[in-house]
């Protein structure tokens, strides 16, 4: 490590003022701190959001759940409100990393980081959620731009995410055994506007699969998902899996998600 200035504001407004003067936001620290230890990141100022009570919490607003950006994975997983309204979201949170990661990691931190293999982005995109910041609201379809890149402006702070409550949903994750990130994760949701299928771990960023959505909107069955050819040309290939293997996993995990939703 090296010397840096540490700030711990007690309000979002105060944090925004400090960020405007330069600095790096610290939420759960699951990405930033390891990067600093490896000297891949070297911010001169860190702005800790952990003392800002207004950024945490879960509440129902009409037909949506609003979850504060600093809400821990473990709290989402354990929430009776989430389990009742969007059980797939609670299940997703319950299988992120290990207990230590779930105890410290935050919803906002995960979504802002947009790791290509993170679980939460698939739920945000799959449910058609809205990312709320201290400046505006951003639809999920406009939020995820590319690898570790989002629509957030410099200094913009996620304050909460609004998840519309679907008719039903499921998340199927094939994890990379060592990291417990998604080798491929598929979030399927039946919403008022149709079926949404979001895929994480397979490409440089989370994405919706138009072919699977079209097939499942026509016939919501595992067999319908099986009939869709998954193009592997833009998928990741690494020491853990080939692009073709990931393409097959997208199909299989979608089929499993649909089967679970059908009971």
UniProtKB/TrEMBL annotation:
GO terms for molecular function: FAD binding; oxidoreductase activity. Residues 1-168 form the FAD-binding PCMH-type domain. SMART domains: CO_deh_flav_C (SM01092). It comes from the Bacteria. InterPro entries: CO_DH_flav_C, CO_DH_flav_C_dom_sf, Diverse_Substr_Oxidored, FAD-bd_PCMH, FAD-bd_PCMH-like_sf, FAD-bd_PCMH_sub1, FAD-bd_PCMH_sub2, Mopterin_DH_FAD-bd. Keywords: FAD, Flavoprotein, Oxidoreductase. This is Carbon-monoxide dehydrogenase medium subunit. It comes from Acidovorax soli.
């Amino acid at each position: 490590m090296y010397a840096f200035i540490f700030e711990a504001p007690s309000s979002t407004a105060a944090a925004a003022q400090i960020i405007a003067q330069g600095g790096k936001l610290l939420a759960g620290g699951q990405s930033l701190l390891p990067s600093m230890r490896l000297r891949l990141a070297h911010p001169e100022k860190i702005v800790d959001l952990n003392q800002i009570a207004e950024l945490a919490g879960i509440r129902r607003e009409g037909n949506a759940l609003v979850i504060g950006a600093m809400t821990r994975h473990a709290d989402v997983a354990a929430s009776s409100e989430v389990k009742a309204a969007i059980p797939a979201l609670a299940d997703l949170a319950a299988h992120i990393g290990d207990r230590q990661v779930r105890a410290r990691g935050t919803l906002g931190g995960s979504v802002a980081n947009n790791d290509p293999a993170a679980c939460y982005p698939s739920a945000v995109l799959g449910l058609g959620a809205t990312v709320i910041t201290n400046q505006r609201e951003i639809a999920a379809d406009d939020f995820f731009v590319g690898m570790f890149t989002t629509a957030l402006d410099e200094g913009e702070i996620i304050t909460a995410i609004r998840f519309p409550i679907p008719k039903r949903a499921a998340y199927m994750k094939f994890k990379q055994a060592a990291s417990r990130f998604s080798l491929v994760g598929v979030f399927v949701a039946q919403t008022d506007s149709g079926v949404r299928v979001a895929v994480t771990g397979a490409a440089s960023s989370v994405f919706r699969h138009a072919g699977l959505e079209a097939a499942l909107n026509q016939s919501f069955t595992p067999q319908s998902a099986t009939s869709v050819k998954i193009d592997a040309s833009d998928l990741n290939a690494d020491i853990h899996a080939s692009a073709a293997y990931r393409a097959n996993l997208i199909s299989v995990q979608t089929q499993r998600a649909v089967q679970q939703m059908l009971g």
